Amino acid sequence: MRFSAVLLALTGLASAHYTIPRISSGGVSGSDWQYTRRTENHYSNGPVTNVASSQMTCYELSPGTPAPQTLAVTAGSSITFHANTALSHPGPVNVYLAKAPSTAATFDGRGPVWFKIYEESATISSSGISWGSYNAASYTVPIPRCIANGEYLVRFEHIALHSAGSVGGAQLYLSCSQISVTGGSGTARPNLLSFPGAYSPNDPGLLIGIYWPIPTSYTNPGGRPLTC
After folding, report:
1. pTM to 2 decimals?
2. Beta partners for residue 119, in sequence order
3. Which residues form the Auxiliary Activity family 9 catalytic domain (predicted)?
4. Is the pLDDT of residue 12 over 90?
5. Taking the chain, what is the end-to-end CA distance rounded to the nearest angstrom?
């Protein structure tokens, strides 16, 4: 019975894909792709599966093409990411920032410039492992008060783990949006990462069977988020 239940779960999850085309903050919510760079999967909704691919930076349809506008965000407030449909696979949300040397619109996000500001923890019980983002159409995270003022790319990532029992089975749904931050203290000294480069296909957070046996722990890839 357990094997049959797993097969049914996998079958139901197999065809559901999504994009993350819109952000909002401080009561301002634009349209799809207004503040977010259009992603390669904007029609297909398909994921990134090769974590060594250049798609891991921002999954851009046309690299070097900025979003039309940059959203003003206050440090210490929150930013909400909106999917085009529900995040219909189990797995965690991770959010990263990269400070632009000048404007977010002219920044390519290449090299060791990213730092994690948020990771979603798993809930594990005798009945299974789960994440609160499952089937959510939007997801809200705090912007740390201690970051410096300036323009940033913010990289939202949802890792779908329903097929992650083999190398390359994890599905990453991601996008980068342009924000301009004010009100930050500038005291943060984050550890910087590169995309691609931050993840290995063998990371325990990417190579994991989540159905049976039930995992006893889960570690998000990309290290720990910034704390202020």
Report:
1. 0.92
2. 94
3. 17-218
4. no
5. 47
Q: What size, in residues, is the chain?
A: 228
Q: What is the CA radius of gyration of the chain?
A: 17
pLDDT class for 14, splitting at 50, 70, 90? very low
What is the helix (H) or strand (E) element at residue 115, kind and residue range?
Answer: strand 114-119
What is the identity of the amino acid at 24? Answer: S
Q: Could you tell me the two tokens for 27?
A: 């009561």
Is cis: bond before 213, omega within 30 of 0? yes
Record the tokens describing residue 14, joined without a space.
């197999």
Pick from 65, 48, 89: which is nearest to 199 by CA? 48
H helices present in the chain, as ranges: 2-13
The whole-number average pLDDT for the span 16-31 is: 93
- Sequence-separated (6 or more) residues with CB below 8 Å from residue 92: 119, 120, 121, 122, 131, 133, 158, 159, 205, 218, 220
Residue 27: per-residue pLDDT = 92
